Amino acid sequence: MEGLYPLKFTPIYKDKIWGGNKLKTVLNKDFGDLPNCGESWELSGVEDNVSVVSNGLLAGNSLEELIEIYMGDLVGDQVFENFGIEFPLLIKFIDANDDLSIQVHPDDKMSKERHNAFGKTEMWYVLQADGGSKLQSGFNQKVDQDKYLFKLEHNELTDILNFEEVAAGDVYFIPAGRVHAIGKGILLAEIQQTSDVTYRIYDYDRRDDQGNPRELHTELALDAIDYALLPEYKTHYETKQNESVELVKCNYFTTNLLDLDGVVEKDYIKLDSFVIYICLEGEVNIETESGSETIQKGETILIPASIENVLLKPASASAKLLEVYINLIQ
């Protein structure tokens, strides 16, 4: 096997009843003839959806195969100890051409007991939003399980949910247990734990292709929901040029924003983790001791843990990246 270098992967496209065409028109994705492409899985270790390298000498190898061979050199020693050959994060772009169902994800403990899986904590970075587009995060008033069930049974659930109008650059952290949904007209990047466990709790009485109501997980969701009311659900941050600005830091991932208009050198010598760059705007040349690559808007790249120094050079007047890694909190 060859040495490690910055790795690109072939996107995995998902047709969804609520999908549209922004992955093509805004992010330059080529998803072929899918009529409603709702998701591009950029980096995935999910079973039956494992990403495959598309660049360089390791092209054609799956992410799982690479972790088996390179172990901590690829993902970081601590990450490998905790997750083995399962890549711990799932990176997606999502195009909501219609409202997604209201849902909630269980935490690690509940997911392990019920599904022998990890829970799902995630975050959203809004790339583009049509005027008036809203997403849903949390509640807009004090709620307990009884009130929640009453509203659900009387088809009034949306009365107690918090909806917020969004614009490009908005960030929302969605820990396991928080009721949430992406609204019509929103294109976003999603960073989440590797898990496909979702409890759908409300779907606007929509029907599938056969005219059947989509399955709901009312009972499973009851104990998974965090009924707490927060004063604010949106993440606030200040953009700074040419340095990493922290957006979200949790035990599952750290995500920073890099707004570039000049060359930036990143030193990862003390970081025991892979690094993922997601290009939000422009084009960036990535130079390392083991090879160079260029990523453009809509592309994602994995920097192996063994690479300690990275030079980021905007190939356009300005560029924006999300910088994602795991810094396990002991």
Q: How many strands, which pairing sense, and closed or not: the largest β-sheet?
A: 7 strands, antiparallel
The averaged pLDDT comes out at: 95
Shape assignment? globular
In CATH, what is the class of the largest domain?
A: Mainly Beta
- Domain count: the total is 2
| CATH topology heading of the largest domain | Jelly Rolls
Tell me the span between the first and last alpha carbons. 33 Å
The CATH architecture of the largest domain can be named as Sandwich
**Count of alpha/pi helices:** 7
Poorly predicted parts: none
Physical arrangement of strands within the biggest beta sheet: 2-3-6-13-8-11-15
The CATH superfamily of the largest domain is Jelly Rolls
Q: Which structural class do the helices and strands define?
A: mainly beta
Describe it.
The chain has 330 residues and is mainly β. It folds into two domains: 7-235, Sandwich (Jelly Rolls), CATH 2.60.120.10; 245-325, Jelly Rolls (Sandwich). It is 14% helix and 38% strand. It has seven helices and 24 strands. The protein has helices spanning 22-25, 63-70, 72-75, 77-83, 108-115, 145-153, 218-222, and strands at 7-8, 12-20, 37-43, 45-46, 49-50, 89-96, 102-104, 122-129, 134-139, 161-165, 171-174, 180-181, 186-193, 199-202, 234-235, 245-249, 254-260, 264-267, 275-281, 283-288, 291-296, 300-303, 309-314, 319-325. The strands form six sheets. A seven-stranded antiparallel β-sheet has the order 2-3-6-13-8-11-15, with no helix packed on it. A six-stranded antiparallel β-sheet has the order 1-22-19-24-17-16, with no helix packed on it. A four-stranded antiparallel β-sheet has the order 18-23-20-21, with no helix packed on it. A hairpin with a 4-residue loop joins strand 16 (245-249) and strand 17 (254-260). The chain is globular and about 60 Å long. The two termini are 33 Å apart. 40% of the residues are buried. The mean pLDDT is 95.
